[in-house]
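Protocol step 4 of 6: structure prediction from sequence.
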Amino acid sequence: MSTTISRPPATPEAVEPPAAGAVSIEAISKTFRLPHQQYSTLKERVLHPLRSTEYDELHAVKDISVEIAEGEFFGIVGRNGSGKSTLLKCIAGIYGVDSGRISIAGRLSPFIELGVGFNMDLTARDNVIINAIMLGLSRRQARERFDEVIAFAELEEFIDLKLKNYSSGMLVRLAFATAIQVDAEILLIDEVLAVGDAAFQQKCFEEFFRLKREGKTIVFVSHDMHSVERFCDRAMLMERGNLIQIGEPRAIGRAYHKLNFGQLPHEAPAEENADGGTLIAEAWFQNAAGERVASVSQDESLSMCFEVRIAEDLVDPVFAATLRTKLGHTIVVARSDQHGHSSGAFKAGETVVARFDMPSWLTPSRYLLTPSLAREGTGENALALVEDMTSVIVHGTSSGGILELPVEARIERT
């Protein structure tokens, strides 16, 4: 792996804050009762009428309060069993709450368990019309939008095929394409991007950008911190039914990673990217031709790049690029001081680009890049660090491992 440090010009980006008033959640709680003794038949219940019935209580959501603004893209993150999907179903009205109050200002459409209402013995044509009507469209609107649904799902050749003959990926594409036709002001989205191939996920990303531009209020549950940081204006972290933290998506993403994997590979500065301080302006991936890319084939070499605006004089600072899987596992940590190299001297006000070139050893998946800059030394005390700032999708044939190392196999008889 080789490292390059250069100094081109740059331009900052402004972020507009969201507007006010759409979903109000006031001190809601939801508990499930799990019986110790479960009867599978009526006969068992009749034969043992006096058998004691004891319950365990699962407190899925505990006294949660949050205000989601009109037009806001709001993320809910947490580990499995944290209560985030239960909270979303409470907002959707699928679950009733034990206490508290939920107020919705506008028409609501849930993207929860996509395709659950499909009839497998009917064709795509029939299912799209029926589900569009169930989601609130008139029969005429459903027919008018049918072609648009099929085109988005890329299923023109299969419209008269029964759904029981569809693959799981085709079903998801059809369900998503149908659901986005609903004219709703508030959308509830639960792990939509966890399924489907890379090309379909990219279409989902583009659709989310469109919905965001149109000012829709979106509540988004996900394990993918890059998606949360890419789309959300704010996010909240849940753990065991409790609200742990609400704030800026990068801070929530960092808290989520700490909750899952302990301390981060580098400690962020106390006031990351504070006014007047050294900051990381942008990060990206490049292919061998020097083009910025969001996806590459498995056999292409790749460069991890980021741009830093330096606010003080520095001698031999440590530039670093950390590459993680979408589950948060660190697989590459590249540093400018590896093999005894030094980065040089820099003056306050300079703009610097760091580039780390890698061979093509990555297996098909999404990979997230965390760039950082630290003072000379161990590199632990960072001047600037942005967690999972950008990502790249590697597509190809998977071997089942994390890396495709250049291994030479030899089989010998003894």
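Step 5 (inspection) to follow. The longest strand covers residues 55-68.
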